[in-house]
Amino acid sequence: MQNTANTAVPGPSEPLDTRALLEDPHAAYAKLREEGPVHRISGPDGRPAWLVTRYDDVRRALADPRLSLDKSNALPGNFRGFALPPALDANLLNMDPPDHTRVRRLVAKAFTPGRVERMREPVRRAAEELLDAVAPAGRADLIAAYAGPLPITVICDLLGVPQRDRRDFRAWSDALIAPDPARPHLAKEAVGAMLRFYTGLIASKRAEPGDDLLSDLIAVRDDEEGSGGDRLTEDELTSLAFLLLLAGYENVIHLIGNSVLALLDHPALLRELRERPAGLAAAVEEFARHDTPAPLAIRRFPLEDMEIGGVTVPAGETVLLSLASANRDPARFREPDRLDPNNGRSGHLAFGHGIHYCLGAPLARLEADIALAALLSRFPGLRLDVPRDQLRRRPSMRAHGLISLPVAW
Fold it and tell me: Which of 298, 301, 363, 404 is 20–30 Å from 97 (CA)?
């Protein structure tokens, strides 16, 4: 491992091999934290990046305005990332203030506490319907049959996506979040399909508005006089729909899947929460900390040479903030590798921190709470249907989730 702690920028060297972060991420992050706060690695796009691993450094960096999300601030050739067309790339994950502030203010109205709470009953009904469909079989892949369809249903209902248009979404998402190196064309095809989908969806909502978030955003986009200066561009509108669907699905499926596996690995906790479901809210926070669904925050680019954890990072280079590593930092959390919702831990970074804190966090928490409550109530005999060592996770630094979770009851 390459220790860069308390040094200036090192000379040319080979970036750290990150295969261990895919094979055994928590052990790899623990080793990195011990060796230093910042490391030169090969990032998800294959280009060199700076990985920040300790809680205090990650939390400070998440709120540091000198770290830009705008890809135009990356050094030429330093960052590759997704090749998205402008109509999908003008989103909150590529914006700094003031544009970020303007766009976030508009979409934040969809995630007020009151609006999220009003979704509780629709989410509960969707969860029960999915469990109704698999109950007679006595077994199911919980990712394909439950953890995946539930967040798709919720976010599509929020945006007003017709049922007939939902079936291809998971394949598109998988192609972007965990691309197959042997079939790189799939990601490009997914981008094209998504662009056509969102363009058509917005056109249909313009022609026939509904009682949904996307119709509301279109109204703001098209209302020159009533927008109060917060109008969206057409690319921002399309990109926002893209981001809401992708983020609203991807992180929640892994939060639910990881949580169920954690319960199956901890039968005493499973029994406790079945008997006392009021404890699920605290448990969801601990599941998110202990097995963070999105291991890395969105990449950032320093606007100037700056020091992070005693390491000088040059302007324009790629910085990756490890939420997963920060959430198991023993300097912040007592016994961080032990799963314990009753330990009184707080302050995890699974949903970020600062102005880019996840807007959908309240809805994600609600979905996970309801999904787990329904599952534990419905299937008291829930158990793994394959040996534990046969479970496989997605080979991605960006997403920490199960490919499948076969269970029986």
Answer: 363
